[in-house]
Automatic annotation (TrEMBL):
Protein name: non-specific serine/threonine protein kinase
Reactions listed under catalytic activity: L-threonyl-[protein] + ATP = O-phospho-L-threonyl-[protein] + ADP + H(+); L-seryl-[protein] + ATP = O-phospho-L-seryl-[protein] + ADP + H(+)
Highest taxon in the source lineage: Eukaryota
Keyword Glycosyltransferase: no
Entry EC number(s): 2.7.11.1
Residue positions binding ATP: 277
Pfam families in the cross-refs: PK_Tyr_Ser-Thr
GO CC annotations, alphabetized: membrane
């Protein structure tokens, strides 16, 4: 239990109970048992399977859990639940999972050595398709562990695939066969060289034609490629495109709702995951107001502000497309709903990031933006637990040259004014 460990106030009060770390018992941390295998040994590149006690080549790696809700590394039931979850959800046989040496590392992440063994009936190796499937599920967090372990990432070790057997020398020792193979290879190489020369000449002719047909064709980037600049700004989406990427705005993709409308999770055609904010009918703005809001939001760029990716304004719909934040809101982490453990260092970093985002809105945005609704539900956390301030924007600009300020109408929780208004 952490209590107030890491809080700066504990520097002067380190001897108090609240500033001391309650240490776990010195009992040995959990490891998958091999007691049923006796004293059997394997070669250096193989390991004993806890399921069959046979020597095999496991798929190994390290699991890093960033915010577990427990500190006891001796609880057998907790780690048995993780083992069972792994073999069930990864489609392995019961007992084919080995967990070793769980520790809390210097980043306070729970680090566990993982070994997954192939089924006894399939031999000592996994095939390539099985390794690709398991590696994809773990590396892309498709596999979901028990809730008490929280979010994680996986780093795999190289897998020693079974070698390919070759034809022996005695089967190819006939001189005629060797000469025939050599002649065939020579002809094939000459043909390939001729094709390559022809292709290079054709490519150069095509590049010269592109120079005259495209204004950016002759501009090379650092990687040697050609083409127009890739501009990063608010993109227009069609209604059908957003409908498709949210499975027709399915309830299973709904992330939340508020006074403005509902928020859905979607996957674009290029694989990017986004959050789509869909306005309710009673929250719809006029066309000019919606256009003004998009123009202002598209000018705001800061690493601690939620980025606007695009928008949709057709078929009577008004939708804003934002970058997706996998770790939810700060409130969910503080209340334990997300399963993420935030120590004092992380909390201070989140507070500092939020302050930097607000300072950008106040000092560097043009016109300046005052949020006026900062709360833990409006601060989102990305995959690195960095703060992203959300729910800021404009609904309508009202320019008053005599008073020298720009004011706005309120849309839900969104308000913006120049600082001169408050001087």
């Amino acid at each position: 239990m952490h209590r107030l460990v890491g809080n700066p106030v504990c520097t002067a009060l380190s001897n108090t109970n609240y500033c001391q770390l309650q240490r776990q018992q010195s009992s040995r941390s959990y490891s998958t048992s091999l007691a049923n295998c006796g004293t059997k040994l394997c070669t250096a590149d193989q390991k004993l399977s806890p399921q069959s006690c046979d020597c095999a080549y496991p798929y190994e790696g390290t699991l890093y859990f960033r915010g577990p809700s427990f500190r006891d590394l001796t609880n057998v039931n907790t780690f048995h639940a993780l083992e069972m979850s792994l073999w069930v959800k990864l489609g392995l046989t019961p007992g084919s999972v080995s967990l070793q040496n769980p520790i809390f590392n210097s980043d306070d992440y729970l680090q566990i050595q993982l070994a997954l063994f192939p089924p006894a009936f399939s031999g000592k190796y996994f095939n390539r398709s099985e390794i690709q499937r398991i590696g994809f599920d773990l590396s892309n967090q498709t596999y979901k562990p028990p809730h008490e372990f929280g979010p994680y990432y996986f780093i795999a070790s190289p897998y020693p695939f079974q070698g390919i057997s070759f034809v022996s020398n005695t089967e190819t020792s006939c001189p005629g066969v060797v000469a025939g193979i050599a002649s065939g290879c020579s002809v094939l190489i000459l043909c390939l060289v001729a094709v390559a020369i022809y292709a290079i000449r054709q490519k150069k002719r095509a590049e010269k034609a592109i120079v005259f047909s495209k204004p950016f064709a002759s501009r090379k980037d650092n990687s040697g490629g050609a083409g127009a600049p890739q501009l990063k700004g608010a993109r227009w989406f069609s209604y059908d495109e957003l409908k498709k990427c949210t499975s027709n705005f399915s309830g299973s993709n709904e992330l939340g709702s508020g006074g403005y409308g509902k928020v859905y999770k979607g996957v674009l055609s290029d694989g990017q995951i986004v959050a789509i904010k869909r306005a309710q009918q009673e929250s719809l703005q006029g066309g000019q107001e919606f256009k003004t809001e998009i123009e202002l939001l598209s000018r705001v760029h800061h690493k601690n502000l939620l980025a606007l990716i695009g928008f949709c304004f057709e078929q009577g719909e008004q939708m804003l497309v934002y970058e997706f934040m996998p770790n939810g809101t700060l409130k969910e982490s503080l209340t334990g709903r997300s399963g993420i453990h935030l120590d004092w260092r992380r909390r201070l970093r989140i507070a500092l990031g939020s302050a930097k985002g607000l300072a950008y809105l106040h000092e560097l945005a043009n016109p300046a933006i005052i949020h006026r609704d900062i709360k833990s539900t409006n601060i989102l956390l990305d995959q690195n637990l960095s703060a992203k301030v959300a729910d800021f924007g404009l609904s309508k600009l009202v320019c008053d040259s005599t008073k020298g300020h720009v004011s706005t109408q309120v849309k839900g929780t969104l308000v913006s004014m120049t600082q001169s208004r408050y001087r």
